[in-house]
Amino acid sequence: MHAHLTQQELSTLQPIIQRYHQPMHPPTSAATNTCTSLMVQRIEAPATAVWPIVRAFDRPQTYKHFIRACEMVDGGTAVGSRRRVTVVSGLPATTSVERLEILDDENRVLSFRVVGGDHRLKDYVSVTSVNEVISDVNSSEVYCVVLESYVVEIPEGNSWEDTRLFVDTIVRLNLQNLRNVVMANSLHGCEGLGNLRICDH
């Protein structure tokens, strides 16, 4: 994980990693029954442009393009709320029921746990944090480093390597799409305001 972060980024993000991501990233191997990973995505934008998209628990399809639709099961988006997402065709799943575990606006951290649905990823827990980093010690410009960690039970009949490759690919594409959405919003003059997107055209 450290190989994907510069020393400056690691120094800035270490408290967040230790508090929210470190339990998600213990040493794992093919001998264990769980698979964990931590993914990194840099976005050339401030947190105000990124966090409103990530925190929208009721609209994950905004940047998670493998999700076709989302329906809130309990109503509201407070911690403990559940959503039912419908997955696009072509994946080994159709639906997933997910419960919001953490929504920390101060530290910009969201976590959810998969609690049901038609898929093979049991006990899947994800933590995503949106972190601002100063681009240069002599500059006030900032960019975001988005960290997403997960832990999941290895499905029966699958290897640790296969499980990690599959989930890492999904998470990586989601984070790349998040960057694309943020940059497109910036290009078209859109800004985040709570859960809304406001454009100047």
From TrEMBL:
Location of the protein in the cell: Cytoplasm; Nucleus
Keyword presence, Nucleus: yes
Alphabetical UniProt keywords: Abscisic acid signaling pathway, Cytoplasm, Nucleus, Protein phosphatase inhibitor, Receptor
CDD domains, per the entry: PYR_PYL_RCAR_like
UniProt keyword Chaperone present: no
PANTHER family: OS02G0226801 PROTEIN (PTHR31213:SF3), OS08G0374000 PROTEIN-RELATED (PTHR31213)
Protein name as it appears in the record: Abscisic acid receptor
